[in-house]
Amino acid sequence: MPEHVEVRLTDDVRLHVETSGPADADVTAVLLHGWTLDGRSWHRQLAELRERFGDRVRVVTYDARGHGRSGCMALRTATLAQLGDDLAAVLDAVAPAGPVVLVGHSMGGMTIMEYAHRHPGHFAARTAGLVFVSTTAEGHTHTVYGLSPRIARLIRLAETTGAGVLARCGAWRPPRALLRALRPSIRWMLFGDRCDPTDIRLVTSAVARATLRSIGGFRASIGAQHRLDTLAALAHLPAAALVGDRDRLTPPPCAESIAAALPATELTVCPGAGHMLMMERPEQVNAALAGVLGRVLAGAPEASAPR
Asked: Mean pLDDT lowest for which of 86-90, 165-169, 284-288?
């Protein structure tokens, strides 16, 4: 059973963290969820990691500020920069020693990039491998929702305007009845050809736990972030990037630009899959994660200072 830990940050926000495996494991894998989701997003990876690696790998998941069972925060801290700082704090609190492999989905992947950008020494001393799942280093540059560019611009305008309104709603959470009514839209936006009913229920449950401040507040920095230069300094690390060819939020060009910045990265494009690859294509995600962990455990060069 996972151990539940509460990490209190310098601004008094409390993060809900779950750890599994011995503290002295050879490697710690830290799995970071996407925007409006929570640590449960990785449920199809946790058992696989335990079965494949046993006590050699410790696994850490946590709910980002304003998400899941973590505390709400001041609106000014609803930024990717703050999430990068939070990741550094979580590592210091629950995995203060030993190599780590960072695994990020969507906003979680952007959090890893921000951590590398804001804490290069800390990142270099700790990070031994990277896995990017359905994420981007270029904000909303490639996000057209699978529609024409003109319609995409209109949707983005409506989305950003609505996000500004939601951000001012504080710690309130979306009404569950409304989310149930929006399930068809959520399914269209996040999933590809196939969707297990339990997955859409889990995603809806996660969105219902996210505060309106986090749903609206993080939108601006997610759309504006550009970290390809930061990634280019990490080319020495074992890495993998995965994307679905039906992903409407971070389409294949997002993963392709990450792979171009990290030439040794193994790029996997999953046919028919959408944005929720951990649920839609767990075999491919698990294989990519196992590949990076295997290289680290086999003695791949440890992290050194970024170029």
From this structure: 165-169
pTM: 0.90
Q: Which of 214, 169, 234 is nearest to 79 (CA)?
A: 214
Query: Other C-beta atoms within 10 Å of 294: how many?
Result: 15
Average pLDDT over residues 214-227: 89
Q: What is the mean pLDDT of the chain?
A: 89
Domains of the chain: 3-297 (3.40.50.1820)
Bridging pattern class, strands 14-20 and 57-62: antiparallel
Q: Which of 222, 39, 41 is nearest to 143 (CA)?
A: 222
Select the more confidently predicted residue: 163 or 139: 139
Q: Measure the CA–CA gap between 219 and 222, rounded to whole angstroms.
A: 5
For β-strands 3-8 and 14-20, DSSP reports them as antiparallel
Exposure b/e, 66-77, CB count within 10 A at least 16 = b: bbbbbbbbeeeb
The answer to whether the beta carbons of residues 67 and 17 sit under 8 Å apart is: no
List the structure tokens of 296.
């680290």
Which of these, 38, 297, 251, lies nearest to 144 by C-alpha position?
A: 251
pLDDT > 70: what percent of the chain?
87
